[in-house]
Design brief:
alpha/beta, disordered C terminus, 275 residues, 17% strand, three-stranded mixed beta sheet, single chain, seven-stranded mixed beta sheet
Length: 275
């Protein structure tokens, strides 16, 4: 059975993200399939470039969830009950769409899949992840080391299984269930003994300015643009993240990519600097 990298596209913005992701994966020389799960909001015309790049595209429906669940997890209600205080989610972010990534457990033609959010780029070959167990994910570290106990669902390893998918549906939509960070909180609950990947397998962009000493280009395998996206015209942290934004655009446009290990790192604070 084959392995596959899988991402999810739910709107035109994430088509841009997926294009950069696919360019970055192909640069690594992977032989695995690249699968684009997409909702009905994406036209076949919009998927054309990804198909030309050799991706397999699969339309998926939203999960069969109760009206109460959908209401609790609608953007306005979820962000009101559990606001994002450390970064800004773009206007095109729709929380209910996130749960569609659980559909990857239905891809039983694959032995192992590695899910990658459409806002990541891959900087070195990561095919070894196909030998990792389910459920493997990196910690949600971008502010301090206390976050190591939480996972980030932007990158994870899964073993497709219809039985697992059915158990997920039963666990997901329980009475009054509220998953404050949607699929991420749910997966952490469903796989309480998740296997930890190194932070370099899902390096969150805020590490660049919050924890610069953790950043080493030689080791970063996957760069994840959590919160603000590098293609946003009104990016509020553009000045702080300019080198990372420029790198994403180089991948998106298919330009020459320099040796990643030689890129300059973030500026480290010095003793006496203002906090």
């Amino acid at each position: 059975m084959q392995n596959a990298f899988v991402t999810l596209v739910t709107n035109a913005d994430y088509i841009m993200g997926a294009t950069a992701l696919v360019h970055s994966l192909q640069r690594t020389g992977t032989t695995a399939d690249i699968v684009i799960l997409h909702t009905g909001a994406i036209s076949q015309q919009a998927l054309g470039n990804l198909k030309m790049l050799g991706c397999r595209t699969i339309e998926v429906a939203h999960l069969p969830l109760s009206d109460g669940f959908n209401e609790r997890h609608a953007r306005q209600n979820l962000h009101g009950a559990a606001p994002f205080t450390k970064g800004r989610k773009p206007e095109f972010h729709t929380p209910l769409d996130n749960f569609c990534k659980l559909r990857l457990w239905e891809l039983k033609e694959y032995r192992t899949v590695v899910f990658l959010d459409a806002d990541v780029i891959v900087l070195k070959n990561i095919d070894k992840l196909f030998d990792y167990p389910e459920f493997s994910a990196a910690p949600n570290v971008y502010e301090n080391l206390a976050d190591f106990h939480r996972l980030n669902s932007g990158v994870f390893v899964a073993k497709p299984s219809v039985e697992t998918f059915e158990r997920m549906l039963a666990a997901l939509d329980q009475q009054d269930a509220f998953w404050r960070r949607t699929d991420q909180t749910f997966l952490e609950s469903f796989f309480p003994d998740w296997h930890g990947l190194p932070v370099t397998m899902n390096m969150l962009q805020y590490v660049w300015f919050n924890m610069p000493s953790l950043w080493d280009w030689k080791n970063v395998a996957i760069l994840h643009y959590q919160y603000e996206k590098p293609w946003e015209a009104d990016h509020p942290k553009a000045n702080m993240l300019r080198p990372l934004i420029d790198l994403w655009h180089a991948f998106h446009e298919g330009r020459h990519i320099p040796d990643i290990s030689t890129l300059p790192g973030p500026q480290l604070s010095k003793p006496g600097d203002a906090a």
